[in-house]
Design goal:
Blueprint lengths: L1 E3 L6 E3 L10 E3 L6 E7 L2 E5 L3 H18 L1
Antiparallel strand pairs: 1-2, 3-4, 4-5
The chain binds zinc ion.
């Protein structure tokens, strides 16, 4: 069954019988990492949002360094 990438609407060729909850897939079109949230129905969630949190933490650490 065809599922589309939530980021770029590229049709993803995923066999629902071959994925499990927690699996990660990569969109061939935009390269976003997608995590399988549920398999019935098949729901995908972009994983790259975590990257923004990491950047925030790094920024705070920089400011702290300047102060000291
Ligand atoms: Zn995509």
């Amino acid at each position: 069954m065809a599922k589309v990438c939530p980021e770029c609407d590229n049709p993803l060729d995923i066999d629902e019988d071959e994925v499990e909850e927690g699996d990660t897939l990569t969109c061939d079109e935009c390269g976003v990492e997608l995590e399988v949230v549920t398999v019935d129905p098949l729901e995908l969630s972009p994983v790259d949002a975590e990257g923004y949190d990491d950047e925030d933490l790094t920024h705070e650490a920089d400011e702290d360094d300047e102060d000291a």
